[in-house]
Amino acid sequence: MTYEFSIKTFDELTSVDLYHILKSRSQVFVVEQNCAYQDIDSLDLDCLHFIAHKDEALIGYCRIIAPEFNTMVAHSSVSALGSMSAIGRVLVLPEYRGDGLARAIMIHAIKYCRKKYAKKPIAISAQTYLINFYESLGFVPNGEFYLEDGLEHVNMTLHLLKKVKVEKPGSPVTSILTFLLLVLALSFIAGLVYLML
User: Fold this and answer.
1) Which end of the chain is more exposed for a tag (fewer CB within 10 A), N or C?
2) pLDDT tens string 7-53
3) Homologous superfamily of 4-158
4) What Rg value do the Cα atoms of the chain yield, rounded?
């Protein structure tokens, strides 16, 4: 499947963009999940809106919440959860599921967060049936399950993997081979000296 991505602030969204975002969020999170809740919140104004397009039509979406606007601290064992960026409202329209689009959206959103927010950890509030999917991207649960709008959720965090400098000691096999090469080289030189005398 061929698709393109765009990312926009709320002010950069056209009225048509906003209509399609809200329509798709309502379709997936309210109608499909049979969950009446207030999808539109004040966070939309301060989020970055990440849109997957196919032939200019919205087929997937997520929003990126900057650390200063992330209010995701309840239900978590990580006290600093609110001081990191977050990814939310991740969706793929039903007819486009099963081709890896959700993974592509998340990978692009993660890369964007890493670049924009100084490689800090990233938070999500995941519906529990998606735990394995988010774990496959490196997120780890960090708290108890909780109900949000009647659906079971868990907070998860993607931590930055720290590069560890490991000294590479010579393995026993390498040491033995090095010793044997040294013995052969010395034997060769000794043989040459013997032949020259």
Assistant:
1) C
2) 999 999 999 999 999 999 999 998 998 888 888 888 999 999 999 99
3) Gcn5-related N-acetyltransferase (GNAT) (3.40.630.30)
4) 27
